[in-house]
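Chain entry —
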Amino acid sequence: MKFKQHLIFEEIKTLLVELSMDQAIEFAQDMHQGQLRRDKKPYSVHPQAVYSILKSFNVKDKVLLVAAWLHDTIEDTTATYNIIKKKFNKQVADIVKQVSSDPKEIEHVGKPEYLLQKMIKMDNNSLTLKLADRLHNVSDLTSASEKIHSQTMYILTELKANRVLNKIHKKIIRAIERILDKVK
């Protein structure tokens, strides 16, 4: 009987995650409606690309995959931590909050140092998402500006020296470095 209950519980969890994923896609598209990337494509292509990058690195954590769709909503839209927490859950909201930037802090310490310190302190899921986000941002450039190139290389070098990285972090970092080497 316990085994049967466990299977039913797992089925319900799977259905809820699938529902959350659909809700995340719809929420991200609604929140980013009318926003454009630098290349003039609709902004919603970015969270989709970050989600796809995570999948390509065999990320299976559903909370992280839902957060991928939502990762820029606090930073770039009217969405708040509490809205995401209510619509999804605390885990998703915590990841989205961790990967969101604080413009005042960036202005105070500079973007490279701000991102480095933030990334050093992130939990593993948030860092995985932030690296996937950075991978898409650098791969989206036809030729990285010297500023973006040097900022990213600084962050990656310091991150490797000052933080324990898991296998997926290292793989994504290598992918970022390969792209930067090509557009140098």
